[in-house]
Amino acid sequence: MDDLDHYLQHLTFERGLSALTCKSYGRDIQLLITLSASSSADNAKEADSSTISMGLARLQNAQIRRFIGILHSRGLSGKTIARALSAWRGFYDYLIQHKGYTQNPVTGLRAPKTAKTLPQALSVDQAIKFVSIEGDGLLEQRDRAILELFYSSGLRLAELVNLDVSRLDFNEGTVTVTGKGNKTRIVPMGSHAMKALQTWLQQRMLITIDSHNADALFVTQQGRRITPRALQYRVKGWAIKQGIHANVHPHMLRHSFASHVLQSSQDLRAVQEMLGHANISSTQIYTHLDFHHLATVYDKTHPRAKK
Which residues contact 110 (CB under 8 A, 6 or more apart)? Predict the structure, then answer.
């Protein structure tokens, strides 16, 4: 087993990171290994673990800086490069602590800055129109429950597809989700979401559920847990059917949830807790979104704002 496998096991079993996060770390570190092998004129596919380890140990700050330039020239965003640097930095910290490495060549390096963009959100009317799916079929009932829950509780895509039936509490009107870093939080469900979920659960009883997915909340007609890709496809399909002229994706409903709750409540801390943000700076972007909405209203209505 090589150093990367050991590190990913460390992230999984000692730090308790989710499988999705570990997969992202592994992909970013594999990119570093490929860049390192290329820089030393080695074939990344043919290099053995000892050669790879030696290559990583020789890397200096200047070489990592050059790798950043290569990634930037490939069109990767500053956010993507920053994530890769974070993965590389953590990997080297592990190698220093457990494998005898003496330096971390990623220390002090930052990704190129990219312009910040506001998250795209639906208007209140658009959101309500979007989630109001009609039809009594199994897929219509399932998808309505999915969209209502997305918009009602602001869940991430991975959180929703991994939900189990046992995580719903209709008495309290809450759903318990496991988010980033395997952190668990309890989020309220709206009355429309609860009604849609109860209807779906009745339909779900008619499906023969695969034994490996016995408690999965959202399943396919074949009884398997719905996949993120399939759900993304369904969301885009429903946006077209419902007449929403926007590039709708699951995360847009999370943005819409956060924006609409913040506009009504002005309670940033509550929104942070419901979204599961570790840092409030991640939530503060929705205050800018809210200001943009207010500025638009002002420009349209105030006599002194008109040209």
Answer: 82, 85
Q: How far is CA 74 from the centre of its chain?
A: 23
Q: Which of 87-101, 174-188, 199-213 has the lowest mean pLDDT?
A: 174-188
Looking at residue 27, its pLDDT comes to: 94
Active-site residue, 156 included:
yes
* pLDDT tens track for 96-122: 999 889 999 999 998 887 766 667 888
Cβ atoms of 18 and 32 within 8 Å: the answer is no
Residue-wise pLDDT tens digits, 150-173: 999 989 999 999 999 999 999 999
Residue 254 bears catalytic tag: yes
DSSP output for 115-170: ---PPP---HHHHHHHH-----SHHHHHHHHHHHHHHHH---HHHHHT-BGGGEET
229 is catalytic: no
Selected catalytic residue, list 6, 234, 277, 293: 277
Predicted pLDDT of residue 79: 86
Please compute the mean of the pLDDT values over residues 44-62 and round it to a whole number: 70
Task: Give the mean pLDDT of 249-267.
Answer: 83
Rounded CA separation 185/241 (Å): 33
What domains are there in the chain, each with its CATH number?
A: 3-98 (1.10.150), 124-301 (1.10.443.10)
Residue of 180, 195, 234, 293 marked active site: 180
DSSP assignments along 265-292, one per residue: H--HHHHHHHHT-SSHHHHHHHHHHHHH
Per annotation, catalytic residue among 156, 225, 255, 260: 156
Specify whether 27 is catalytic.
no
Instruction: Give the mean pLDDT of 67-87.
Output: 91
CB 259 within 8 A of CB 121: yes
